[in-house]
From TrEMBL:
Residue stretches making up the Dienelactone hydrolase domain: 30-244
Entry GO MF terms: hydrolase activity
InterPro entries: AB_hydrolase_fold, CMBL, Dienelactn_hydro
Recorded family membership: Belongs to the dienelactone hydrolase family.
Annotated compartments: Cytoplasm, Cytosol
Record protein name field: Carboxymethylenebutenolidase homolog
Top-rank taxon: Eukaryota
Major location (coarse): cytoplasm
Pfam family, one: DLH
Gene Ontology CC annotations of this record: cytosol
Protein source organism: Chelydra serpentina
Taxonomic placement: Eukaryota, Metazoa, Chordata, Craniata, Vertebrata
PANTHER family: CARBOXYMETHYLENEBUTENOLIDASE HOMOLOG
Length: 249
Protein backbone atom coordinates (compact mmCIF):
# COMPACT_ATOMS: atom_id res chain seq x y z
CA UNK A 1 0.00 0.00 0.00
CA UNK A 2 1.35 3.39 -0.95
CA UNK A 3 1.78 6.27 1.45
CA UNK A 4 -0.82 8.19 -0.55
CA UNK A 5 -3.41 5.61 0.49
CA UNK A 6 -2.64 5.74 4.20
CA UNK A 7 -4.67 8.86 5.10
CA UNK A 8 -7.70 7.20 3.49
CA UNK A 9 -7.06 4.04 5.46
CA UNK A 10 -6.79 5.86 8.77
CA UNK A 11 -9.84 8.06 8.25
CA UNK A 12 -12.60 5.46 8.45
CA UNK A 13 -15.52 6.46 10.64
CA UNK A 14 -19.20 7.18 10.93
CA UNK A 15 -20.19 9.92 8.51
CA UNK A 16 -23.84 10.91 8.50
CA UNK A 17 -23.48 12.74 5.20
CA UNK A 18 -21.46 10.03 3.43
CA UNK A 19 -23.16 8.89 0.22
CA UNK A 20 -20.62 6.41 -1.12
CA UNK A 21 -18.58 5.93 -4.26
CA UNK A 22 -20.38 2.79 -5.37
CA UNK A 23 -23.90 1.91 -6.40
CA UNK A 24 -26.76 -0.37 -5.40
CA UNK A 25 -27.55 -3.54 -7.33
CA UNK A 26 -30.10 -6.32 -7.12
CA UNK A 27 -28.25 -9.62 -6.76
CA UNK A 28 -31.01 -12.20 -7.18
CA UNK A 29 -33.14 -11.79 -4.01
CA UNK A 30 -30.57 -9.57 -2.25
CA UNK A 31 -29.99 -5.85 -2.48
CA UNK A 32 -26.31 -4.97 -2.35
CA UNK A 33 -23.96 -2.00 -2.33
CA UNK A 34 -21.12 -2.54 -4.81
CA UNK A 35 -17.93 -0.53 -5.23
CA UNK A 36 -15.26 -1.42 -7.77
CA UNK A 37 -11.59 -0.39 -7.88
CA UNK A 38 -10.13 1.87 -10.52
CA UNK A 39 -8.34 -1.02 -12.24
CA UNK A 40 -9.51 -4.46 -13.37
CA UNK A 41 -9.08 -7.19 -10.78
CA UNK A 42 -10.08 -10.79 -10.15
CA UNK A 43 -10.05 -10.32 -6.36
CA UNK A 44 -13.07 -9.44 -4.25
CA UNK A 45 -14.18 -8.96 -0.65
CA UNK A 46 -17.65 -9.29 0.84
CA UNK A 47 -18.25 -6.78 3.65
CA UNK A 48 -20.89 -7.92 6.14
CA UNK A 49 -22.67 -5.18 8.04
CA UNK A 50 -23.37 -4.92 11.74
CA UNK A 51 -26.82 -4.64 13.33
CA UNK A 52 -27.33 -1.21 11.76
CA UNK A 53 -27.58 -2.68 8.29
CA UNK A 54 -26.14 -2.42 4.81
CA UNK A 55 -27.22 1.19 4.16
CA UNK A 56 -25.49 2.65 7.22
CA UNK A 57 -22.99 5.33 6.07
CA UNK A 58 -19.98 3.95 7.93
CA UNK A 59 -20.28 0.43 6.48
CA UNK A 60 -20.45 1.92 2.98
CA UNK A 61 -17.40 4.00 3.75
CA UNK A 62 -15.53 0.85 4.78
CA UNK A 63 -16.74 -0.93 1.64
CA UNK A 64 -15.34 1.95 -0.42
CA UNK A 65 -12.08 1.69 1.50
CA UNK A 66 -11.76 -1.99 0.65
CA UNK A 67 -12.40 -1.21 -3.02
CA UNK A 68 -9.72 1.48 -2.91
CA UNK A 69 -7.25 -1.24 -1.89
CA UNK A 70 -7.85 -3.03 -5.19
CA UNK A 71 -10.85 -5.32 -4.57
CA UNK A 72 -14.35 -5.54 -5.94
CA UNK A 73 -16.16 -4.83 -2.67
CA UNK A 74 -19.78 -5.72 -2.06
CA UNK A 75 -21.91 -5.17 1.03
CA UNK A 76 -25.11 -7.24 0.69
CA UNK A 77 -28.25 -6.80 2.77
CA UNK A 78 -28.10 -9.98 4.81
CA UNK A 79 -31.23 -8.86 6.67
CA UNK A 80 -33.12 -9.32 3.38
CA UNK A 81 -35.15 -6.15 3.74
CA UNK A 82 -35.97 -6.61 7.41
CA UNK A 83 -35.59 -3.52 9.56
CA UNK A 84 -32.07 -2.98 10.94
CA UNK A 85 -31.47 -2.00 14.54
CA UNK A 86 -31.59 1.72 15.28
CA UNK A 87 -30.40 3.92 18.11
CA UNK A 88 -34.04 4.49 19.03
CA UNK A 89 -34.70 0.79 19.66
CA UNK A 90 -34.75 -0.58 23.21
CA UNK A 91 -32.08 -3.13 24.11
CA UNK A 92 -34.61 -5.09 26.14
CA UNK A 93 -36.15 -6.12 22.82
CA UNK A 94 -32.87 -7.03 21.13
CA UNK A 95 -33.26 -10.77 21.67
CA UNK A 96 -36.61 -10.82 19.92
CA UNK A 97 -35.27 -8.64 17.10
CA UNK A 98 -32.35 -11.04 16.59
CA UNK A 99 -34.50 -14.17 16.27
CA UNK A 100 -35.07 -13.78 12.53
CA UNK A 101 -31.66 -12.22 11.87
CA UNK A 102 -29.41 -15.12 12.80
CA UNK A 103 -25.77 -14.53 11.73
CA UNK A 104 -25.30 -18.31 11.52
CA UNK A 105 -27.98 -18.57 8.81
CA UNK A 106 -26.37 -16.63 5.99
CA UNK A 107 -25.19 -19.56 3.87
CA UNK A 108 -27.71 -19.18 1.06
CA UNK A 109 -27.09 -15.45 0.78
CA UNK A 110 -23.32 -15.94 0.85
CA UNK A 111 -23.59 -18.44 -2.01
CA UNK A 112 -25.66 -15.99 -4.05
CA UNK A 113 -23.09 -13.22 -3.60
CA UNK A 114 -20.20 -15.57 -4.36
CA UNK A 115 -21.94 -16.58 -7.58
CA UNK A 116 -22.46 -12.94 -8.51
CA UNK A 117 -18.81 -12.09 -7.88
CA UNK A 118 -17.54 -15.03 -9.91
CA UNK A 119 -19.96 -14.75 -12.83
CA UNK A 120 -20.57 -11.00 -13.06
CA UNK A 121 -17.27 -9.61 -11.73
CA UNK A 122 -14.86 -12.38 -12.83
CA UNK A 123 -13.61 -12.80 -9.26
CA UNK A 124 -11.35 -15.77 -8.61
CA UNK A 125 -10.13 -15.03 -5.08
CA UNK A 126 -12.69 -13.84 -2.54
CA UNK A 127 -12.38 -12.87 1.11
CA UNK A 128 -14.94 -11.69 3.66
CA UNK A 129 -14.87 -9.22 6.55
CA UNK A 130 -17.60 -8.53 9.08
CA UNK A 131 -18.30 -6.25 12.01
CA UNK A 132 -20.09 -7.33 15.22
CA UNK A 133 -23.16 -9.18 13.86
CA UNK A 134 -21.22 -9.46 10.62
CA UNK A 135 -18.22 -10.73 12.55
CA UNK A 136 -20.31 -13.62 13.85
CA UNK A 137 -21.42 -14.32 10.29
CA UNK A 138 -17.77 -14.41 9.20
CA UNK A 139 -16.92 -16.89 11.97
CA UNK A 140 -19.80 -19.08 10.76
CA UNK A 141 -18.73 -18.89 7.10
CA UNK A 142 -15.15 -19.76 7.99
CA UNK A 143 -16.50 -22.98 9.50
CA UNK A 144 -18.76 -23.87 6.60
CA UNK A 145 -17.64 -22.44 3.25
CA UNK A 146 -14.26 -23.43 1.75
CA UNK A 147 -14.70 -21.07 -1.24
CA UNK A 148 -13.47 -18.09 0.74
CA UNK A 149 -9.73 -17.51 0.77
CA UNK A 150 -9.90 -15.86 4.18
CA UNK A 151 -12.04 -14.00 6.67
CA UNK A 152 -11.68 -11.17 9.19
CA UNK A 153 -14.08 -11.14 12.12
CA UNK A 154 -14.15 -7.87 14.03
CA UNK A 155 -15.60 -8.33 17.53
CA UNK A 156 -17.87 -11.20 16.61
CA UNK A 157 -17.65 -14.87 17.61
CA UNK A 158 -20.10 -17.78 17.66
CA UNK A 159 -20.54 -18.88 21.26
CA UNK A 160 -23.23 -21.57 21.26
CA UNK A 161 -21.67 -24.27 19.09
CA UNK A 162 -19.29 -27.01 20.16
CA UNK A 163 -17.84 -27.33 16.65
CA UNK A 164 -16.92 -23.68 16.17
CA UNK A 165 -13.15 -24.13 16.19
CA UNK A 166 -12.35 -26.26 13.13
CA UNK A 167 -11.94 -23.39 10.67
CA UNK A 168 -11.73 -24.14 6.95
CA UNK A 169 -10.01 -20.90 5.94
CA UNK A 170 -7.37 -18.57 7.45
CA UNK A 171 -9.20 -16.29 9.89
CA UNK A 172 -8.24 -13.14 11.78
CA UNK A 173 -10.20 -12.30 14.95
CA UNK A 174 -10.05 -8.69 16.16
CA UNK A 175 -11.26 -7.73 19.66
CA UNK A 176 -11.27 -4.75 21.96
CA UNK A 177 -9.79 -5.23 25.40
CA UNK A 178 -12.79 -3.57 27.08
CA UNK A 179 -15.58 -5.04 24.95
CA UNK A 180 -18.67 -5.37 27.16
CA UNK A 181 -20.21 -7.97 24.83
CA UNK A 182 -17.23 -10.33 24.59
CA UNK A 183 -15.40 -11.16 27.80
CA UNK A 184 -11.69 -11.76 28.02
CA UNK A 185 -12.44 -15.31 29.20
CA UNK A 186 -14.31 -15.95 25.95
CA UNK A 187 -11.33 -14.78 23.95
CA UNK A 188 -8.98 -16.98 25.97
CA UNK A 189 -11.29 -19.97 25.41
CA UNK A 190 -11.39 -19.25 21.68
CA UNK A 191 -7.60 -19.16 21.52
CA UNK A 192 -7.25 -22.36 23.54
CA UNK A 193 -9.75 -24.28 21.42
CA UNK A 194 -8.33 -23.02 18.12
CA UNK A 195 -4.89 -24.26 19.17
CA UNK A 196 -6.46 -27.62 19.87
CA UNK A 197 -8.69 -28.06 16.82
CA UNK A 198 -7.85 -25.58 14.06
CA UNK A 199 -5.65 -26.79 11.20
CA UNK A 200 -5.42 -23.57 9.17
CA UNK A 201 -3.75 -20.25 9.86
CA UNK A 202 -5.50 -17.99 12.34
CA UNK A 203 -4.73 -14.94 14.42
CA UNK A 204 -6.35 -13.42 17.49
CA UNK A 205 -5.46 -9.89 18.46
CA UNK A 206 -6.80 -7.83 21.35
CA UNK A 207 -6.37 -4.07 21.21
CA UNK A 208 -5.85 -2.70 24.75
CA UNK A 209 -8.53 -0.48 26.22
CA UNK A 210 -10.81 -0.65 23.19
CA UNK A 211 -14.57 -1.07 23.40
CA UNK A 212 -17.04 -2.90 21.15
CA UNK A 213 -17.16 -1.26 17.73
CA UNK A 214 -13.89 0.62 18.23
CA UNK A 215 -12.67 0.05 14.68
CA UNK A 216 -15.68 1.97 13.37
CA UNK A 217 -15.50 5.02 15.63
CA UNK A 218 -15.95 8.36 13.92
CA UNK A 219 -12.98 10.74 14.24
CA UNK A 220 -14.72 13.07 16.69
CA UNK A 221 -15.37 10.14 19.04
CA UNK A 222 -11.76 8.98 19.08
CA UNK A 223 -9.85 9.68 22.26
CA UNK A 224 -6.20 10.55 21.63
CA UNK A 225 -5.07 7.43 23.47
CA UNK A 226 -7.35 5.19 21.42
CA UNK A 227 -6.58 6.49 17.94
CA UNK A 228 -3.33 4.50 17.48
CA UNK A 229 -5.14 1.24 18.28
CA UNK A 230 -8.02 2.08 15.92
CA UNK A 231 -5.60 2.82 13.11
CA UNK A 232 -3.59 -0.30 13.90
CA UNK A 233 -6.68 -2.54 13.74
CA UNK A 234 -7.70 -1.15 10.37
CA UNK A 235 -4.23 -1.56 8.96
CA UNK A 236 -4.00 -5.11 10.35
CA UNK A 237 -7.28 -5.99 8.64
CA UNK A 238 -6.05 -4.75 5.28
CA UNK A 239 -2.70 -6.50 5.64
CA UNK A 240 -4.44 -9.80 6.40
CA UNK A 241 -6.56 -9.47 3.28
CA UNK A 242 -3.47 -8.61 1.27
CA UNK A 243 -1.73 -11.76 2.50
CA UNK A 244 -4.51 -14.20 1.69
CA UNK A 245 -6.46 -12.58 -1.16
CA UNK A 246 -3.99 -10.36 -3.01
CA UNK A 247 -1.09 -12.81 -2.79
CA UNK A 248 -0.71 -16.07 -4.69
CA UNK A 249 -1.10 -18.22 -1.56
Amino acid sequence: MTSDAEPFLYDIGKRADYVGLGHEEQVEHIKAYVCKPSSVTDKAVIVIHDIYGWQFPDIRYITDLVAAEGYVAVCPDFFLGKKPWTSADHWAKFGDWLKDRDPAKVDREADVVLKYLKEQCSAKKIGVVGFSWGGMAVHHLMLKNPEFKTGVSLYGIIRDSDDRYDLLNPTFFIFGGKDHTISYDQIILLEKKLKQYCQVEYRIKVYPGQVHGFAELKPEDMKPGDKPYIEEARKDMMNWLKTYVQSSL
